[in-house]
């Protein structure tokens, strides 16, 4: 792929109001400036940390001996309200400023709806495999050959009194948060920030690097148990981000990525830990 992805001039590319061609014109008109694309690219980290802090304060007020562990575990719940909801509301405002609708970021075409759904199911498999590879590489780089020698279960360290709460968190993480995360992250990183960073820089690689940094940095918030855990989570998501970005650039529609992302999170964040928990009771 060339350094200037703006060379495309197909009718489909130009008719899309969120296309890079259309965005580049808005950059020339002064309607898009670097501040908001950069801010949205990194805003989810502090929003996720706010959610974790609020959860920690709540569990501390309940005199929980595991306040920090429970706050970290419930981050998949709090992210829905402190990051996903805030990002969607901000994107609604930002797109309105540009003369777009929030739905324009999805690029949904009715005649391709069924195809996009099926494509999303296929992307689930691809994304799941790529995520496994990225996380494996990251773990080996950070922990070395012993990275997988002492696996830790998702529920170890929680006493019996917390199991009802833990079960509720995993249920939420299986059926609700994957959908909100899939929508909000794909809207924020891939449909909003990434194409605008390309339009602003005129080149693919700076935008790809910035998007990977933003996506990787956000996930540090889910691994605050140690610097190695944080670094491994960052590296895994840093390696994964270009896959999402290049798929979006190829398809120019967000729905397949949202579906694939949603299913990956539903399995990884909720279903596997929930099944493990239920088999232990």
UniProtKB/TrEMBL annotation:
<feature type="transmembrane region" description="Helical">
    <location>
        <begin position="71"/>
        <end position="95"/>
    </location>
</feature>
<feature type="domain" description="CAAX prenyl protease 2/Lysostaphin resistance protein A-like">
    <location>
        <begin position="170"/>
        <end position="267"/>
    </location>
</feature>
<dbReference type="GO" id="GO:0004175">
    <property type="term" value="F:endopeptidase activity"/>
</dbReference>
<keyword id="KW-0378">Hydrolase</keyword>
<feature type="transmembrane region" description="Helical">
    <location>
        <begin position="204"/>
        <end position="224"/>
    </location>
</feature>
<dbReference type="GO" id="GO:0080120">
    <property type="term" value="P:CAAX-box protein maturation"/>
</dbReference>
<feature type="transmembrane region" description="Helical">
    <location>
        <begin position="116"/>
        <end position="143"/>
    </location>
</feature>
<keyword id="KW-0645">Protease</keyword>
<dbReference type="GO" id="GO:0006508">
    <property type="term" value="P:proteolysis"/>
</dbReference>
<feature type="transmembrane region" description="Helical">
    <location>
        <begin position="163"/>
        <end position="184"/>
    </location>
</feature>
<feature type="transmembrane region" description="Helical">
    <location>
        <begin position="254"/>
        <end position="278"/>
    </location>
</feature>
<keyword id="KW-0812">Transmembrane</keyword>
<dbReference type="Pfam" id="PF02517">
    <property type="entry name" value="Rce1-like"/>
</dbReference>
<keyword id="KW-1133">Transmembrane helix</keyword>
<feature type="transmembrane region" description="Helical">
    <location>
        <begin position="230"/>
        <end position="249"/>
    </location>
</feature>
<keyword id="KW-0472">Membrane</keyword>
<protein>
    <submittedName>
        <fullName>CAAX prenyl protease-like protein</fullName>
    </submittedName>
</protein>
<dbReference type="InterPro" id="IPR003675">
    <property type="entry name" value="Rce1/LyrA-like_dom"/>
</dbReference>
<feature type="transmembrane region" description="Helical">
    <location>
        <begin position="35"/>
        <end position="59"/>
    </location>
</feature>
């Amino acid at each position: 792929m060339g350094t200037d992805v703006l060379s495309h001039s197909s009718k489909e590319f130009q008719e899309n109001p969120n296309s890079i061609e259309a965005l580049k014109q808005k950059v020339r008109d002064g309607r898009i400036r670097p501040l908001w694309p950069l801010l949205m690219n990194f805003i989810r980290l502090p929003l996720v940390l706010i959610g974790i802090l609020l959860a920690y304060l709540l569990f501390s007020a309940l005199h929980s001996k595991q306040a920090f562990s429970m706050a970290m575990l419930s981050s998949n719940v709090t992210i829905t309200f402190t990051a996903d909801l805030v990002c969607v509301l901000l994107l609604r405002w930002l797109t309105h400023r540009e003369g777009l609708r929030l739905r324009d970021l999805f690029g949904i075409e009715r005649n391709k709806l069924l195809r996009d759904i099926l494509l999303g199911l296929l992307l689930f498999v691809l994304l799941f495999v790529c995520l496994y590879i990225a996380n494996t590489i990251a773990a080996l780089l950070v922990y070395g050959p012993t990275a997988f020698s002492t696996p830790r279960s998702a529920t170890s360290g929680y006493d019996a009194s917390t199991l009802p709460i833990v079960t509720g968190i995993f249920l939420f993480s299986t059926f609700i948060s994957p959908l909100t995360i899939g929508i909000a992250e794909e809207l924020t990183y891939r449909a909003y920030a990434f194409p605008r960073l390309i339009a602003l820089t005129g080149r693919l690689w700076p935008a790809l690097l910035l998007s990977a940094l933003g996506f990787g940095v956000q996930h540090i918030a889910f691994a605050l148990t140690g610097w190695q855990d944080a670094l491994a989570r960052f590296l895994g998501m840093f390696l994964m981000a270009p896959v999402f970005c290049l798929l979006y650039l190829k398809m120019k529609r967000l729905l397949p990525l949202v579906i694939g992302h949603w299913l990956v999170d539903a399995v990884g964040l909720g279903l596997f830990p929930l099944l493990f928990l239920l088999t232990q009771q």
